[in-house]
Amino acid sequence: MKSKPHILILGGGAGGAELAARLGGRKDCAVTLVDRQPAHLWKPRLHEFAAGTIDSTLSELSYYMLARMRGFHFEQGKVETIDVATQSVRLSGPHAPGGHSAAPRELTYDRLVVALGGQTPDFGTKGVDAYAVRLDERADADRFRARFVAEMITARQRGRPAAVVIVGSGATGTELAAHLRQVESGFFRNPGERPTDILRILLVEAAPDLMPGADDRLRQSIKSRLDALDVETLTNTKIAEIGPDGVIAADGTRYPADISVWAAGLVGNPCLKNLAEFNFDNRGRIIVDSRLRTSLSPQILAIGDAACFTPDGAKAALLPTAQCASQQAIYLASAIPKMLAGKEPPPFVFDDRGRLVSLARAGSVGQIGFGRKNDFLVKGKFANAAYKSLQRRHQWTLLGRLRGGVAIFADFISPAKGAQLKLHR
Ligand SMILES: Cc1cc2nc3c(=O)[nH]c(=O)nc-3n(C[C@H](O)[C@H](O)[C@H](O)COP(=O)(O)OP(=O)(O)OC[C@H]3O[C@@H](n4cnc5c(N)ncnc54)[C@H](O)[C@@H]3O)c2cc1C
């Protein structure tokens, strides 16, 4: 008897995990999801893990549990290489303390989806690797939080504020700044009374304005909220070097920092370059066609931050967002079965639903689209609900309608909500 075609998905992030959940349980194919981590984390809230403000029991979901619930196989391991000729992928690990490791192995595929995400580049800036924190994965967020707690306690003892300098004013930088202001009260001696000497936050941007690429009204709204949170901002300031105790601008000005955060830009995951001879854009992302196929092989597709897709007639490729990764997962969940049946699916069309930023107690703000325009500025409860809905939809997709509905409701009414500083691991 002929075995079912095997769909192998590399990376269980915003795009890959959704695709596995959508394709899992189908009768006409078998699905395997690979990730180096044992649990799925929703990356758009990584800054909340870093700040310690995350308050959801659904913020991390075991891939092993999801696989059982949604009818796919999960294989934990690091993707090493792809062999196009034999249609196989080589994995290593996971590695356990004491030098123990799982045996290296190979998985074959009929269709392969690369969804390995991206990484913050240092643009060749000296000292980023040695002295700055980047927020690319859970381990980075955990390291940041441990440092932050130590610096805040020290600041309270010595009476000089802890200085956090964040380089890059995109979503990661601005949201992290706002969430740090929210948790600082955990270190006040007198609750409700904010000392002036406990935390100084500086957000530095190389471009002339905060949040490059955002509309002027959104930018102004974010700036006034950051001002209200007492987050200092500096634009037109290119950072040339990160040192052990500060960041140094191209004009030589030094900004003291107890913790420096590097949150400038995004490129494709550097591991992509070692996988196979893909065609890359200048940000190291795999170039895909209108059906999200790579030029290396029509059997290999790529989505999310690992992929570079430029819609017909557009001047630039789509931005690397969870919104885009999720829409590409929805698309492939219906396109791959068609491809396996020898049919040509319709092209992928991105529906831009706008941009939302959550600034902790300063509220959420964003621009959402109606029709073909993204010109509706939203604030307050509506923006907050819209911001959370992206993750809720994602949880719903991963967990399924019934279980997802119950779990989301339980999470919503959880008495553990609202913690200012959770020292979770
Ligand atoms: C702080 C922050 C805030 C953000 N806010 C928003 C927002 O508000 N809205 C929005 O739309 N987007 C937001 N984003 C962007 C969004 O998180 C990403 O665009 C999205 O997660 C990309 O999804 P992905 O599936 O391509 O990759 P990811 O979600 O990054 O997943 C990649 C997966 O691949 C795995 N992996 C990596 N390398 C290997 C390997 N060698 N072997 C095995 N597994 C591997 C990783 O463990 C991970 O699970 C934000 C990002 C950050 C950091």
Describe the structure.
The chain folds into 2 domains: 6-120 and 267-340, FAD/NAD(P)-binding domain, CATH 3.50.50; 128-262, FAD/NAD(P)-binding domain (3-Layer(bba) Sandwich), CATH 3.50.50.60. The protein has 11 helices and 27 strands. By secondary structure, it is α/β, with parallel strands linked by helices. Mean pLDDT is 90; it is low at 418-425. Strands 5-2-1-11-23 form a 5-stranded parallel beta sheet. Strands 13-20-14-15-16 form a 5-stranded parallel beta sheet. Strands 6-7-10 form a 3-stranded antiparallel beta sheet, with no helix packed on it. It has helices at 16-23, 46-51, 63-70, 128-131, 138-158, 171-183, 216-228, 272-275, 322-340, 380-399, 401-412; strands at 6-10, 30-35, 39-41, 60-62, 73-76, 78-83, 88-92, 95-96, 100-101, 105-108, 111-114, 118-119, 132-134, 162-167, 199-204, 231-234, 239-243, 246-249, 254-256, 259-262, 267-268, 286-287, 300-302, 307-308, 355-358, 364-370, 373-379. 30% of the residues lie in helices and 25% in strands. It is globular and about 75 Å long. Bound molecules: flavin-adenine dinucleotide (FAD).
